[in-house]
Design brief:
With about 150 residues, this protein is mainly alpha-helical. It has helices at about 20-40, 50-70, 75-80, 90-110, 115-125, 135-140, and strands spanning about 5, 10-15, 80-85, 145. It is globular and about 55 Å long.
C-alpha cells in the first residue's frame, strides 16, 4: 500500500511509489540522451552546432511546457504520476519548472555539490520512509509527487 498525504485542499492523495519516480526520471534522461546521440551520429564532426542544439532545446521546451501545464514530464505522464503544490493544484511554470528545477540547479552551484552527489541524496530521500518520498526539490517548494 502506498502512503497517502492530505494536502491543504482537504483531499487525500497517494504518494507516487519511489520506483515510478525513478523510472520517470530515467526515461526523461534516457530520451534526452538518445536524442543527443542520434543527432551527434547524424552530424558527425559537423561545425553546425545549431543542428544539434536546436532539437535539444525543442525537447527541453516541450518538457517545460508539459511540466508547466500538467505538472508532468513525458516520463511522469507515462508512469501516471504528477507534481502538485501544497494546495493540491498544478504548481505551473513558476512552481514546477523555475522553483523545482532551476532552483535545484542553483543550489547545486551554490553549495558546489557535484550533480551526482545531489541526485544520490534525492534517491536516499525517496527510499527512506521518514522523508515521505519527498526529495530536495519537493521539500524546497512544498510540493509532492502523487499517483494518478
Amino acid at each position: 500500500m502506498n502512503p497517502e498525504v492530505c494536502l491543504e485542499n482537504g483531499k487525500v492523495y497517494r504518494l507516487a511509489p519511489a520506483w515510478k519516480r525513478i523510472a520517470a526520471a530515467a526515461l526523461n534522461f534516457g530520451l534526452a540522451y538518445a536524442l543527443l546521440q542520434a543527432l551527434l551520429y547524424c552530424f558527425p564532426g559537423n561545425n553546425d552546432f545549431h543542428l544539434v542544439l536546436l532539437p535539444m532545446l525543442a525537447y527541453m521546451l516541450l518538457q517545460t511546457i508539459l511540466m508547466s501545464l500538467k505538472g508532468q514530464s513525458f516520463g511522469k505522464w507515462l508512469f501516471r504520476i504528477r507534481v502538485l503544490d501544497k494546495n493540491g493544484s498544478n504548481p505551473g511554470f513558476l512552481g514546477t519548472v523555475l522553483a523545482r528545477e532551476a532552483a535545484f540547479v542553483l543550489l547545486l552551484i551554490f553549495f558546489r555539490w557535484p550533480a551526482g552527489f545531489a541526485y544520490l541524496i534525492c534517491l536516499a530521500m525517496l527510499l527512506i520512509p521518514k522523508f515521505e518520498r519527498r526529495t530536495l526539490q519537493d521539500r524546497f517548494m512544498g510540493s509532492v509527487v502523487v499517483s494518478l
